[in-house]
Amino acid sequence: MDIRYSANQKDFKRYTTEETRAEFLIEKVFADDEIVATYSHVDRMVVFGCKPVNEAVPLDKGIDCMKNFGTNYVLERRELGIFNLGGEGSVEVDGEVYNLAFKDCLYVTKGHKSVVFKSKDKANPAKFYMISAPAHKVCKTTFLSIADAQKKPVGDNSTANKRVINQFIHPDVLETCQLSMGLTELDPGNVWNTMPAHTHERRSEIYYYFNIAENQAVFHMMGEGDQTRHILVQNDQAVISPSWSIHAGCGTANYTFIWAMCGENLTFDDMDHIAISDLR
Ligand SMILES: O=C[C@H](O)[C@@H](O)CC(=O)C(=O)O
Ligand SMILES: [Zn+2]
User: What separation in Å is there between the alpha carbon of 96 and the centre of ligand 2?
Assistant: First the structure.
């Protein structure tokens, strides 16, 4: 398991490109028939990727649960948000099977012992992108298709940021302990997300960029509003955004991303907006 410790905003000002990438960028999220896990000490969010091809893959494959989580199984004290970003597949949760097509989501609550991933067709494998957060009580394991998500159309063609924020794991849609998660899709010809930018002192966030066409990329902006830096993000990569950091991106073409938050509250609009004229 790749473990990332917390970095602070004062030291960050002097980071090189390599240091910035090593600290915040998750370059590899998927490997065939493996669980790829990145444990961030920022609000203890864990990124899991699973691309089952030839076999059924359990969530704890290759993970020493007692060593990494201090529990007997991964979800003993954690909840999990899952998005399928590949071909059709299934998630079996303690014997109950959920079928997930492209962009379908499954929220798995605390306390489930067995979570197993499968693809329907190995020629077009499922890709399960997941975020886990610490949880203190049992909620309801729930399947959500994009039709169930609350839709927030924002932005405009004239500012190249016309997009739809699909809120899947959100207090208006279902109850969770700490996790909120959704999928933001940019219209063709639109490249900017989350501009004007914001921070949220009470939560941190992870962005996972996908649907980036070949030879295109996203310049992900981070840092305090008056100390911005960027990370070059390629397709299928994620960026950790601590509470002190803005998180916005500009693509060389349109793209889609999954955002996930965890922290003190679940209040989506509890944000500190930064005027574009105040950015440095
Ligand atoms: O705190 C909220 C998150 O940063 C995202 O939901 C923002 C986003 O998807 C967007 O503006 O495109
Ligand atoms: Zn945010």
Answer: 33
State how far the Cα of 57 lies from the Cα of 55, in Å rounded to an integer. 6
ipTM for the predicted complex: 0.99
Q: Contact, 127 vs 104, CB < 8 A?
A: no
The enclosing domain of 164 has a CATH number of 2.60.120.10
Helix (H) or strand (E) holding 128: strand 128-134
What rounded mean pLDDT belongs to the chain?
A: 98
The answer to whether 246 and 205 are in contact (CB under 8 A) is no
The conformation of residue 212, written as its DSSP 8-state character, comes to P
The answer to whether the predicted template modeling score (pTM) of the entire model surpasses 0.90 is: yes
CA of 258 to the centre of ligand 1 (A): 9
What's the pLDDT score for residue 87?
A: 98
Query: First vs last Cα of the chain: how many Å apart?
Result: 35
CA distance 74 to 52: 19
Lining ligand 1 with CB less than 6 A are 163, 165, 184, 193-194, 200, 205, 247, 259, 271
Distance (Å) from CA 39 to ligand 1 centroid: 22
**Residue 123 belongs to what domain range?**
2-278
Q: What is the pLDDT of residues 70-104, one digit of tens each?
A: 999 999 999 999 999 999 999 999 999 999 999 99
Q: Residue 201: which of 267, 258, 131, 280 has the closest Cα? A: 267
Q: Which two tokens stand for residue 44?
A: 């203890």
State which ligand 1 atom lies nearest to the alpha carbon of 200.
1
Enter the tokens of residue 246.
Answer: 């803005």
Give 28-77 pLDDT, tens digit per residue.
999 999 999 999 999 999 999 999 999 999 999 999 999 999 999 999 99
Domain count, the chain: 1
